[in-house]
Amino acid sequence: MVREYQTGNAPVPGFFHNNRPAGQSCDLRMATAPHSAIVRKSIRVRGIVQGVGFRPYIYNLARSRGLCGYVLNSSSGVTIEVEGPEGEVEEFLEQLRRHPPALARVEAISVSDVAPQGKTGFAIRESVAAEGEFVLVSPDIATCEDCWRDCLDPENRRYGYPFTNCTNCGPRYTIIRDIPYDRPATTMAEFRMCPQCRAEYDDPGNRRFHAQPNACPACGPGIALARDGSFMPDGPVFGYGEIALSILGDVRQVLRQGSIVAVKGLGGFHLACDAENETAVNLLRRRKKRSDKPFALMARDLAAVEKFCEVSPADRELLLSPQHPIVILPRRAESRIAAGVAPGNNTLGVMLPYTPLQLFLFGDDPQQPPEFNALVMTSGNMSEEPIVTQNQEAWKRLGRVADWFLFHNRGIYMRVDDSVARTFKGRGRILRRSRGYAPHPIKLDAEMTELLACGAELKNTFCLSKGQYAILSQHIGDLDNYETLEFFEETLGNLKKLFRVAPRAVAYDLHPLYMSSRYALAMAGLEKVGVQHHHAHIASCMAENGLRDRVIGVALDGTGYGTDGKIWGGEFLVADCAGFERRAHLRYVPLPGGDAAIRQPWRVALSYLRDTFGESIPGDLPLWREVPERQLRVVSAMLAQGVNTVLTSSCGRLFDAVASLLGVRQEVTFEAQAAIELENLARAGIYGRYDFEIEDGDGLQIDMRPAIAAIVADVGARQAPAIISSRFHNTVAAAAMEACRRIRQESGLNRVCLSGGAFQNMYLLERAVRELGAAGFEVFLHASVPPNDGGIALGQAVIANQILRRGA
Question: Which of 32, 82, 419, 711 has its CA at 20 to 30 Å from residue 169's CA atom?
Fold first, then answer.
């Protein structure tokens, strides 16, 4: 008989310990229950169960119950056999099912009866590799409290050691070359453990038992500091112990002097400088060629963060979570953070140190105030290239950016950037899914065909599927250069190997110019499945929330190729994972100049003005003063003659147009900049809105011309931009609710899924959820998968799976 337990996570920290000598027989409890039947069970556990202390947990749990047997890692998870009195075995299984180790994610437990062997002792056996099997790989985990104490204690042998870790924390995905997850299959293979570290590694009662990155100053990786322009040999001299502490003190000194330091971290390099030094921040912007896009910050602790940001209880929980993502927080008006960190933005992206090396950048005495309130810790790359991971690569590619380089000699096998999240309704919601979250898969409620979904062009991730799992890659980035495509291919090869996936089909976005689509279509021997962009957005939200039946899907974003050849982006669908119907959309307007209109919001504003007023456009608007007259004439002629224009229903372009009308921004330097700055203007407590119309036609069309006319009138009347922005956001939320209400009347559907990059706008999201909730809708949102194009690949995968299975 085989029993299947589908389990969730009920983490209970700590292991079960006892004082029994290591070699003592395990039949002590058997003697106390002579009439209890002796049974033996074979147990297979799947999920994230390697590298998280699972085997020592099982070892101590079995010994605490007087059971015999063994536990081992395999290519499919953890295999256990336990033997003893039936009641004790059942209690063992119940404890395993209800209270796995804190960092484990148990997906399934299967149990079968085997013949008792009458042996004694419980052992942890060597790992076993099995052809075609796979195990869920743990993401990298921030340093745990025990390891913080170790490296901050002057009496501890790991005092000041930048690579302190244990089974409960430290690098995982970034160092794993293959499974099973054992040291020879990681980048730590070259570091031979000293006798003390080996004793910890071999002791099942120690929290460093089989911690594959286990090391100390005597045997592990070290650090080196080099100045830009100095000679860097192939093998720099790395410092350990007190030398490492001295090096870190030197790093703090050059940071105080205003230098920019390239710091090798867990999944790649960061570029660091003092976040309160305006000159250093602006210098970093110029050298990195990053005009206005916000920099991420790192602060030593919560107390430091609260000096410059407002932190809610949910924010605190997210900042301190094992993932330690960058969390988007409201900026305090009195903050001393340099304006150049996030120009024109009233939020800051902040994270806490997740490795000891990062912690020591703020000082080596936790009892003293940090030497910096915050450091800029932005990705170590140029422009939109992938994050740099190797020492020589950093020396070559970041030499014109950094003044100093802080190297270490632990290899990074998979580059992984920092994750970004924010909280809404008391829950963390991922905006960029990477370190700490990837490659943990999404558990689905259906068996998946093995396939590859190549994702979108911007914020690219890809998705592999196997069994009931969708394996979403870490954040790859915008596929607009060769280096990023190389990163895509590098990561794809690694995840296919780790999860033993051999795709038989590939899903892709319908946009013919997306590099991800061209890559998919060029793959030989695989069945091709094209998936519409906004359908993928909604399917992604459905998959994350375990929905199968049809829903009303609201997909609001900047760009998606429509089935009619137009650019969609303000879409209301009736959809499931097998198909969709487009029931409503924003009224089309011409997009003059294609991609140029995305970079220059005034072009879209001019299009909306002509659509609203015809030739009689009011003259008292910021764009007439801020845009050269010649450019206005050229674009006006393009719109009048329909030359080099394409029709769009994009919600993102509507936001751009309103931002231009208010004089917020006429040109952008990064995606959604105008919309972000428009959101920054909006204020709580303003409930008014503008008029709009919903017209029957090819589906319902949401006509925003009445709102545009009213906004122009408010601008002319010198109405406060905060009031105009708030009313506009309220209008979009009200229009979304009204469109959903009309679709419900026709379809009878009451579930609404919200997806697309526009729902990263917290002001819009809050009002849309409130409007829909007041109208009686059941609303589903993203949390563990980004609402932006970083979640597209998941939707592509579940849609392609349905199509393939339907056609089989």
Answer: 82
Q: For position 21, what pLDDT does the model report?
A: 31
What's the CA gap between 373 and 333, in Å, rounded?
16
What is the rounded CA–CA span in Å between residue 555 and residue 573?
8
Encoded amino acid at 532, one letter? Q
Please tell me whether the peptide bond between 618 and the residue prior to it is cis, using omega within 30 degrees of 0. Answer: no
Output the pLDDT for position 10: 31
- Looking up residue 669, the CATH number of its domain turns out to be 3.30.420.40
- The CATH code of the domain that includes 271 is 3.90.870.40
Which range of residues forms the domain containing residue 99?
2-124
Domain contains 118: yes
The contacts of residue 746 (CB under 8 Å, 6+ apart) are 583
In a domain, 487, yes or no: no
Place of tokens 């003592």: 24
Residue identified by tokens 């029957």 is 696
What does pLDDT average to over the chain? 91
Q: Please, what sign has the CA dihedral across residues 31, 33, 36, 39?
A: negative
Higher-pLDDT residue of 627 and 46 is 627
| Whether residue 4 has pLDDT greater than 80 | no
* Percent residues over pLDDT 90 in the chain: 78
Domain count, the chain: 3
Residue 351: what pLDDT?
Answer: 98
CA of 264: how far to CAs of 92, 103, 192, 282, 785, in Å?
A: 43, 25, 22, 22, 27
pLDDT at 232: 61
**pTM score:** 0.90
Picking from 459, 469, 489, 524, the residue whose alpha carbon sits closest to that of residue 801 is 469
Same domain for 233 and 117: no
The pLDDT score that the predictor gives to residue 210 is 86
Q: Is residue 249 part of a domain?
A: yes
For residue range 394-422, list pLDDT tens digits in order.
998 999 999 999 999 999 999 999 999 99
Would residue 454 count as lying in a domain?
A: no
CA distance 279 to 508: 44
CA–CA distance, 172 with 701 (Å, rounded to integer): 49
The three state secondary structure string of 750-777 is: CEEEEECHHHHCHHHHHHHHHHHHHCCC
- 379-388 b/e (C-beta count within 10 Å ≥ 16 → b): bbbbebbbbb
